[in-house]
Design a protein that fits this description.
Number of strands: 20
Bound molecules: 1-deoxynojirimycin
Number of domains: 3
Number of helices: 16
Strand order of the largest sheet: 13-12-11-5-2-1-15-14
Radius of gyration: 23 Å
């Protein structure tokens, strides 16, 4: 067993959405050479680990989360030599690379799937859930499960009349069958392939759904969630992940972070105690601005964001911290104040993210306060989940397409955070040299971009740099215990404590002045306002770290 450095507990992670980071060859797509070219930017920001969204061979129906070859690079992103160069250059700067591990499903263009649906029976048939339809004519789906993107989870196979395959996501993402020992071995082989190359670890896509317990119909839940109880967090899923650890991962200094929905205290602890994952992303806090049906926008409430985060701070010893990723809308639009307190609220969110216990994940653009892409039209939409959901809303509510899309665009459309990154205010925000981009650029680049942020000492970017540097060099923020104080109206406060040193963090999530009853003797360490602070009169969106003395 290799000694584990647990470096993931000391570093800040930066997620790169590979298609939209930097287009070095001006073909409209971000690429690996583009990422290598920007490593110094990330180093300067204080980043210690990069999570690279999928760069494997893929038809890109779900932007690379539909893999057709796990061991080769999608030519859109470059070559394996480009990947090796990225690893080497990152290594020189002491930045580790984490890959996306998408093993719940493969693309239907994967060789395994192509063979699986050949009329002649072969071993690959059992790599997937390929089942005969119900009814005399076998023309009914094997069960009533729904895809997580809405719509049925089964699709007919033309080459095998009467047969269907299961897809929990879009219909070109076929679910793998983890009852099959060979599938498990294939995954172990993929893990070794990338770890041997020097990759540090993996972000495991929808990992809590890889094992289905049965293929029964489910009549107990609303349409949207049919089947969930048969495929989320199944006992055997934990066992498979523990096996990956003992069979493969223990031979390397590595870590796994999992994308894990439908959590509770017991499930969360099982992931860590059974060594399945080193940390996971919880989703409870992402409903802070939604109604009970996530497709409908609700009014943002501070407590709906903060309380779930506090809850998880106390349940597990370590967690993945995030406010944004490629599946979420931009955080300043959701939890901040874009109009009057844009800068202050963006900095408040930065301070919040970087003062909690766990590993912070920053999503590209978050550090410059990038905002949603307001002008998205249905015709421009590239997000397969938004397209599926628009269809479903159309059907269920009998809305026309544009009205349905308007609803989806406010909550679900993932294009908002996927537009090309804004490096400067030159053409296409400096993402490339002017070639049409795969997804339209957000015109806001004229106001919000790296270059302008770098030149402004009071910018959001410079605040992130300051905060990350502070955290990188501070054991209280990295390792300290967490203790919440309160979430009252919009005032949030908590403590971090390490070897007798105590920090108090105070946040005002509102556009009004507010009072925080401070009874302690404290000194300011960092805040998003320049002047000394009066606790009885905290300015709007104030955020500060204080040392208790
Ligand atoms: C979660 C990923 O983050 C998302 O982008 C993807 O669409 C689904 N899993 C399916 O792989």
């Amino acid at each position: 067993m290799k000694t584990q450095s647990n470096e993931f507990k000391k570093r800040v992670v930066y997620q790169i959405y590979s298609s939209s980071f930097y287009d070095s060859n001006n073909d409209g797509w971000g690429d690996l050479k583009g990422i290598t070219a920007k490593l110094d930017y990330l180093k300067d920001l204080g980043i210690g680990i990069i999570w690279l969204s999928p760069v494997f061979v893929s038809p890109m129906d779900d932007m690379g989360y539909d893999i057709a070859d796990y061991k080769n690079i999608n030519p859109r992103f470059g070559t394996m030599e480009d990947f090796d160069e990225l690893l080497e250059e990152a290594n020189k700067r002491d930045i580790k690379i984490v890959m996306d591990l998408v093993i719940n499903h493969t693309s239907t263009e994967h060789e395994w799937f192509k063979k699986a649906i050949e009329p002649e029976e072969n071993k690959y048939r059992d790599y997937y859930f390929i089942k005969e339809g119900k009814g005399k004519k076998h023309n009914k789906m094997p069960n009533n499960w729904q895809s997580c993107f809405t719509g049925p989870a089964w699709k007919k196979i033309d080459s095998l009349p009467g047969y269907y395959y299961m897809h929990l996501f879009c219909d070109t993402q076929a679910d793998l069958n983890y009852y099959n020992e060979e599938v498990i071995k294939e995954v172990e082989d993929i893990l070794r392939f990338w770890l041997d190359k020097g990759v540090y670890g993996f972000r495991c896509d929808v990992i809590n759904k890889i094992r289905k317990s049965s293929l029964k119909d489910d009549h107990t839940r609303p349409l949207y969630f049919k089947g969930l109880k048969y495929y989320s967090n199944q006992d055997n899923m934990f066992k498979i992940l523990t096996r990956f650890r003992t069979e493969v991962l223990d031979d390397y200094d590595t870590f796994l972070v999992g994308e894990t929905g439908e959590l509770n205290k017991e499930v969360g602890n099982r992931f860590l105690n059974e060594r399945c994952l080193d940390m996971f992303f919880e989703f409870d806090h992402t409903n802070a601005d939604k109604t009970f049906l996530p497709v409908f926008k609700g009014k943002f409430k501070t407590k709906k964001l903060v309380k779930p985060i506090f809850k998880w701070q106390k349940i597990v010893p370590w967690i993945a911290l995030y406010l944004e990723n490629h599946d979420q809308l931009r955080s300043v639009n959701r939890y901040g104040n874009v109009d009057k307190y844009y800068k202050e609220s963006a900095k408040l969110l930065a301070l919040f993210l970087l003062t909690l216990k766990g590993t912070p994940f920053i999503y590209q653009g978050e550090e410059i306060g990038m905002l949603n892409y307001e002008q998205v039209k249905y015709e421009d939409c590239k997000d397969v989940a938004a397209i599926y959901t628009t269809e479903t809303v159309q059907k269920l509510l009998r809305f026309n397409r544009d009205r349905a899309f308007k609803i989806v665009n406010e909550t679900i459309n993932r294009d908002h955070a996927r537009v090309p990154f804004a490096w400067s205010n030159s053409v296409n925000g400096g993402f490339n040299a002017g070639h049409e981009t795969w997804l339209k650029v957000n015109d806001l680049y004229k106001k919000i971009n790296v270059k302008d942020e770098e030149n402004d000492s009071n910018s959001i970017l410079n605040f992130y740099k300051k905060m990350i540097r502070f955290r990188n060099n501070d054991d209280v923020l990295k390792f300290g215990d967490f203790k919440d104080e309160y979430v009252k109206k919009n005032i949030v406060s908590y403590y971090r404590n390490y070897e007798g040193k105590i920090y108090l963090i105070v946040l005002n999530f509102s556009d009004k002045k507010a009072k925080y009853c401070n009874l302690l003797n404290v000194k300011t360490l960092i805040s998003n306002y320049e002047n000394e602070i009066d606790f009885n009169d905290l300015p709007p969106y104030f955020a500060g770290i204080f040392e208790v003395i």
